[in-house]
Every structure is written in structure tokens, then in C-alpha cells.
Amino acid sequence: GRVIFKTDKYQITSVEEKNIEKALSKTLRIYPNPMRDNANIAFTSTARTNVILNVYDLRGQLIDKVEYKNCISGMNNIRYTNNNIKSRTYIVRLSGEGVNYSSKIIVNNK
């Protein structure tokens, strides 16, 4: 079971609770997915930063790169516009100070 023990000097919580808090503090959501012309990307950052969004095909070739400036510490929403990339599955990588996410995105131009 879960155990919480508290003294004046230490507080011990269960490992499961710490893992849940850690998972909730790092979030990436891409919608709609599959995308057509635009996709919204919601993510959390631990610092104010510029982020780079790299889009790779499944062979690892860089297809698109976009910089988003002045993202805040906390929850951010950015918009990615499909710059005529073909209908298929891609890997997106979002990186910056306090930001490091990867996810799949499907482009469907039909």
C-alpha cells in the first residue's frame, strides 16, 4: 500500500506519488492528430525559453524546422503549419531550455 510518514525534519511519500507528479509536470499534446494544414502543440516548460520544433521522417531525415520565441515557464500553446510536407507519419522533436519532447504526428493532406 501507500505510506506517508512525516516528521519535523523529513517527509517521505510513496514512489508512485512522486512518479505521478513528475508525469503531470511534463506534458506534450498535439491536436488534431492526424493533422491537415495546422496542428496545435501544447507543452509545459520549466523555464522561459525559445523552442525549436524539428520534424523528421521515419528514416531520420530532417523535413522541417521552426523556431518559436518567448515561450513561458509553464503551459504553452504553439501552432505548427504544414509547409507542404507529404501525407505520412513523422516524428516531431520539441527542444529548448526546460523542454525536451518527442512524439509522432500524422499528416493527411487528403
Shape: globular
Helix amount: 10-25%
End-to-end separation in angstroms reads 51 Å
Strand fraction: over 45%
The helix-strand sequence is EEHEEEEEEE
Structural class: mainly beta
Sheet with most strands: strand arrangement: 6-5-8-9
Tally of separate helices: 1
Radius of gyration: 18 Å
Largest β-sheet summary: 4 strands, antiparallel
Low-confidence stretches: none
The overall pLDDT, averaged over residues, is 84
Number of strands: 9
Write the layout of secondary structure elements.
Blueprint (H helix, E strand, L loop, with lengths): L4 E2 L4 E2 L2 H11 L2 E4 L6 E8 L3 E8 L5 E10 L2 E8 L6 E9 L2 E9 L3
Antiparallel strand pairs: 1-2, 3-4, 4-7, 5-6, 5-8, 8-9
Any overview of this molecule?
- The chain is 10% helix and 55% strand.
- It is built from one helix and nine strands.
- The protein has one helix spanning 15-25, and strands at residues 5-6, 11-12, 28-31, 38-45, 49-56, 62-71, 74-81, 88-96, 99-107.
- The chain has a four-stranded antiparallel sheet, with no helix packed on it.
- β3 and β4 (38-45) form a beta hairpin.
- The longest helix is centred in the first third of the chain and has 11 residues, at 15-25.
- The protein starts with a strand and ends with a strand.
